[in-house]
Amino acid sequence: MTTTMKAIQKTQPGPGVKLIDAPIPTPTSHQVLVKVKITSICGTDVHIYNWDKWAANRIRPPMIFGHEFSGEVVEIGSQVEHIAVGDHVSAETHIPCGGCFQCRTGQMHICKDVEILGVDRDGCFAEYVAIPEICCIKNDKSLPWDVASVQEPFGNAVFTVSESAVAGKSVAVFGDGPIGIFAVAIARAYGATKLIACGMQPFRLELIKKYQPDHVIDVTKADPREAIKEITKGEGVDVVLEMSGAERAMHDGFAALKRGGTFTAFGIPSGPVQIEIAEEMIFKGLKLLAINGRRMFETWYEVANLLGSGLVDVRPVITHEFPLAKIDDAMAMLNAKEIKAGKIVLKP
User: Fold this and answer.
1) Contact 340, 141 (CB under 8 A)
2) Residues of the chain with CATH 3.40.50.720
3) Of the listed 3, 30, 44, 232, which one is catalytic?
4) Residue 271 pLDDT exceeds 90
5) Residue 168: other Cβ atoms inside 10 A
6) What phi and psi, each to the nearest 5 degrees, are found at residue 340?
7) Can 44 be counted among the known catalytic residues?
8) Cβ(227)–Cβ(217) under 8 Å?
């Protein structure tokens, strides 16, 4: 094996990235080295590429970024016990410390000292990546590489829907990004009886329709509050899944929720959001859930069961594939005013 690899690196503060030759990582005693087969682009990667305020405050160049991938293990550290060379794996991208209160009480996904792959340490936009054994998710070898690469964001949606207890309930999903689309598909699979999808990108709203929600609302053409009120005969929905992080969507979601309903927040706002806590939350007696990442490791088993059963097919959401070296072309699609892509994957 050669000693260098191609990788996408944020070499310095500012927009853009560079394709570089980097040393292939050497796994430590508790790490494995993975040959990346497919990696996929997350919204976080777009923030890093564009170098917005969040990225400027969090990312410390030079750094290889990217965190969603699938690949084959080619080397293991001396203390690795449960992963072998040849295994197909993806990664739980939150790397826990293992010793804090959260880690020791079944809440590793919100570890106090968590590090994130491709954010706090070198990631997977490369030919190889080294990850801790504890973060390895072993995949069935029949699982296609592209499907395996999107399990991490798919798991976000699974966790969101599972925590919200949607079976037998009316549900409104706000947000038409890939995780929002996944949430629609999962809510349908998990027994939502009336499913309403709200978004603003025509291409992605068409993707959502493949999962057969009862209603699709283009919020650029219709007021979702009034539309949902009409659909539910004035009652509002039982559950709102807010997947966009847009302030307007949050307020629309609170307004569309029936009294005593459940509001589940997953989308990350770009800045502080002003909420009328009394009117929007307290007087409605709503239940508020906040979702971060995936449960380690229950959500991953749920993901595997869903994909293995065929109840949810993620392939329609994976719309484009580019070589790793063409990342600028992929980012241009995701930065367009009208986004004509779902999930974009890259092949090293």
Assistant:
1) no
2) 156-290
3) 44
4) no
5) 11
6) -110, 55
7) yes
8) yes
- How far apart (Å, rounded) are the C-alpha atoms in residues 38 and 218? 32
Q: What spatial distance separates the first Cα and last Cα of the chain, rounded to whole Å?
A: 16
Segment 209-227 mean pLDDT: 98
Section 66-79 average pLDDT: 98
Q: Within a 10 A sphere around the Cβ of 76, how many other Cβ atoms? A: 21
CA-to-CA distance for 135 and 81, rounded, in angstroms? Answer: 13
Q: Tell me whether residue 88 is one of the annotated catalytic residues.
A: no
Helix axes 151-163, 298-309, angle to 10 degrees: 100
Which of the residues 47, 67, 94, 109 is marked catalytic? 47
C-alpha–C-alpha distance, residues 330 and 303, integer Å: 26
Domain 156-290 top-level CATH class: alpha beta
CB neighbours of 276 closer than 8 A, spacing ≥ 6?
none
Tens-place pLDDT, residues 224-241: 999 999 999 999 999 999
Q: What is the CATH T-level fold of the domain 4-150+314-347, as seen in this structure?
A: Quinone Oxidoreductase; Chain A, domain 1 (3.90.180)
In this structure, the chain runs to a length of 348
Q: How confident is the model at residue 2 (pLDDT cuts 50, 70, 90)?
A: confident
